[in-house]
Amino acid sequence: MQGMSERQYAARVGFSRGAIQKAKAAERLVLYPDGSINAAASDARRAETTDPSKVRGDRGASGAAKAPRTKPPAPKLKPVPEAALSAVGDTLREQGLAVPAVGGGTTFLQAKTANEVLKAQERRLRLQKMKGELIDRARATALVFRLAREERDSWVNWPSRAAALMAAELGVEAAGMQKALEIHVRAHLDELAEVRPEFR
After folding, report:
1. pTM (two decimals)
2. Would you call 65 helix, strand, or coil by DSSP?
3. 19: which residues sit within 8 A by CB, 6+ positions away?
């Protein structure tokens, strides 16, 4: 036999043979062509696929801690993109939680907490959408600009409608009144054109 049997590997890592069989079925172990277990490669694969938060201390049947066993070689970790680390920090900061120090790296617990926060926010947004409490940003922006354009057109046409009435009440020439109103209305519209709505 080229590698270890299930019983030998179970003794090596301190697990039951049933646990080794499950790991084998889940393809968490590396096997030789003859079906025996490649111990070193299997140790590395198990380390890569094990969630650190789910690892429990090694305890025997009596509950006493077992003697530490030789650790498998640490797997090569892929670098985490800076954008992902920044997103973790932003999410934690929004919730008033501890943020990783600049250049200090993000712990697994911080990343997991940020992930849980984002999942909760996503569920809340999905629920708000189902209840009709959310609006589409693009549609809202288009609606605001359409209403603003209609309001502007209404003001542009107002001097010609109101000038004759105001001129009669004040006893002045209608043409002069219309020209004065148009100047002031256009100046006011120019000021309003600088306002840009923001949707957060």
Report:
1. 0.32
2. strand
3. 10
